[in-house]
Design brief:
eight-stranded parallel beta sheet; 21 strands; 1 helix; 2 domains; 13-stranded parallel beta sheet; globular; 187 residues; mainly beta
Length: 187
């Protein structure tokens, strides 16, 4: 019985040590910030835009990337996104549009992947605009059904399109793209 009690004491001590080690050495992971409205400043843990929400990221520094769920709308102006942007079924994804006064381009460290978006929920706007930005990663546009504009960007990683309803608009401005380009542009 004494032997069993000693084992139990050592087991409890070991469990406490493991718990302490996990607490000390964990990265203190943070949950993603749900965005519905304006968002600026420093955001750690990423951003999520849910169905029916309209997120306007302006002058922000986001670590953890941005995810736009089905039906969400995203605008990004003058921001740094570390971790890339991933949208599937979004209403609109608009990055760095000069049509919005004071909206500067963005620095995106990671890829941009936009699938199954469009035809767009905002009247007069393209369903997808990737403009005036530096993207340190590839851009993938697939299965989108709305008008798409990709203009005045520096893209390090390639530009890839597949099964979209429309070709890309370059709005009279070229892109500097390092890597393969598998998209067609129209005027």
């Amino acid at each position: 019985m004494k032997r069993l009690a000693g084992f139990h004491t050592r087991l409890v001590g070991l469990v406490c040590l493991v718990g302490l080690a996990l607490t000390v050495f964990s990265g203190h992971a943070r949950a993603a910030t749900v965005c519905n409205g304006p968002l600026s400043g420093t955001v750690v843990g990423g951003v999520v835009v849910n169905s029916g929400d309209v997120c306007f990221i302006d002058g922000a520094n986001v670590s953890g990337g941005v995810r736009v769920n089905e039906g969400g709308v995203l605008f990004v102006c003058s921001s740094t996104i570390n971790g890339g942007i991933n949208a599937n079924g979004a209403g609109n994804v608009i990055l760095g549009p000069e049509e919005i006064p004071g909206c500067g381009g963005d620095q995106i460290n990671g890829g941009v992947k936009i699938n199954n978006t469009g035809p767009g929920v905002l009247p007069g706007a393209p369903s997808i605009a990737v403009e005036n930005s530096t993207i340190n990663g590839s851009v993938h546009l697939s299965g989108n059904s709305g008008v798409m504009a990709v203009a005045f960007n520096t893209i390090a990683g390639g530009l890839f399109c597949s099964k979209n309803l429309f070709d890309l608009l370059d709005e009279g401005g070229g892109n500097i793209i390092t890597g393969a380009v598998r998209c067609n542009f129209t005027d």
